[in-house]
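Key result, reporting period 2: structure in, sequence out.
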């Protein structure tokens, strides 16, 4: 009886380990282009110390998409993250991506 109990414990232990190690972790979108390496990416610079937006790549902008102010003539570029989320702009696949090199 003890031998059978011992073998069942080993089998259960083996199956649990097999399940744990057979599950794979997948990182999505590793084959898609990254905005940071794009020619059109404008990195966010925090020149004002009291600026509520931190100096972070998440706030980078895209030179490819934006809107011009009719009064001042200044161009307000869209956030790169918003461009990647919008299928009509760059989209998840990075359709407008152009490598810096």
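The corresponding designed sequence is given below.
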């Amino acid at each position: 009886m003890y031998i059978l109990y011992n073998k069942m414990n080993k089998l259960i232990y083996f199956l649990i380990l097999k399940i744990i190690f057979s599950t794979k972790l997948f990182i999505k979108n590793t084959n898609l282009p990254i905005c940071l390496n794009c020619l059109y990416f404008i990195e966010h610079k925090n020149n004002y110390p009291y600026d509520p937006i931190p100096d972070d790549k998440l706030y980078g902008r895209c030179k490819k998409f934006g809107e011009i102010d009719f009064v001042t003539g200044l161009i307000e570029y869209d956030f790169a993250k918003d461009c990647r989320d919008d299928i009509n702009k760059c989209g998840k696949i990075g359709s407008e991506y152009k490598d810096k090199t």
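The first strand starts at residue 41 and ends at 42. Residues 27-85 form one domain. This case is discussed further under Risks and Mitigation.
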